[in-house]
Structure prediction request, 470 residues.
Amino acid sequence: MNAVRWGWALGLLALWPGLAAAAELDGSQLSVLWGVPFAGLLLSIAVVPLLAPMFWHHHFGKVAAVWGLVFFLPFALTFGVGAAAAHLVHALLAEYIPFIILLTALFTVAGGIYIRGNLHGSPGLNTAILAIGAVLASFMGTTGASMLMIRPLIRANDNRKHKAHVVVFFIFIVSNAGGSLTPLGDPPLFLGFLKGVDFFWTVSHIFPETLFLIGCLLGLFYLLDGWYYHRREEILPLDPTPDSRRIGFDGAANFWLLGAIVALVLLSGFWKSSLVFDVAGTEVGLPGLVRDIGLVAVTWLSLKITPTGVHVDNQFSWGPMQEVAKLFAGIFLTIIPVIAMLKAGVSGPFGAVVSAVTRPDGSPDPAMYFWAAGALSSFLDNAPTYLVFFNTAGGDPAVLMTTLAPTLAAISAGAVFMGANTYIGNAPNLMVKAIAEDRGVKMPSFFGYMLWSVGILVPLFIVMTFIWFR
Prediction:
């Protein structure tokens, strides 16, 4: 939560008279060198934990801050303190703070629900948990479903020697693919909903793709988990979790708070208000403000009503949330010029990417939109990436939902599905990894995880391209 307080402090600083002046950043005039801090932060996340794990564990926030300053100080010198402050305020108020508030609310409320009792992690049970998590993800968000289901899944497998693959498939299925059917599932789809895409449009247009991907992943997982499970040395002689407690829920009142989170998110999408606050050139609408205040209240209420024993049983700590908050603070800041360069279209430094999604006759190419949106969502935040390609395809929701429906389906599927390709493609990925490591699961490194995603997900994406996105 320190990151949020610092964010507000910086935002207030930028409001000092004469300091901030909003200005649209012209990405066509930027050099690709402005993307170096963002690339440096991504490489740091990928490499430093491998080379210096103890240093990273204690100083990842400082590393993110250094890369943020490497971008922000030269940016302020080049474009002026006012313009730099305005872009900082926009990144904080329009993107980072609402993002972190929502994640914190879901993390806290889901962490206040303890599924008691000892499940035994057989291939059948593990597959069933992944399937249930996939269904929940589209109704309570990938973050909420991930935070609710990851702890009992890890506990069910704590008597097994090999369990990293269980968490990897959990990230594939629950933290990403499962959130593809409604705007509540994943931030990119929620942004599309705010832009005018019908609430049920996604489920009616990419349900077959989602069913194929999740079905294939569940089948592959069952076979792989069964192979591990039937090895002689797989089951440890002593199960760390006793069987003395009946299966049930503690902290069940938090289910009502999950419903409140869903209601607040929906309200901010359906409620239209002309009341807008201008904060250093960034417009803050009343619905979004009410949503964020409501989410903070829900977070506070969850902490108040959840018995201490539930948090103890859940091994609840703020470590995973702090890691996500600090790293994404750096990501949201250093990504500013990268998004501007992408928005510049064919006239920008990344013009080749934009040109690649258009056929010679000028019509959009769904296959290329699927892979371009997906590839960038693997390394950039998938929400702004979705918006970039949404606008590249014309930005008119009425046209995109009808005439260009295959293109919008490709953008939606690419942004959501391929967020699973790396740990940083979607915020729940990092949170699940941090929780698993907190509980002693030896997770793959950044590149080790990518070996899993390239070996399993990419072939499935290729098949999907030939079936649905030609």
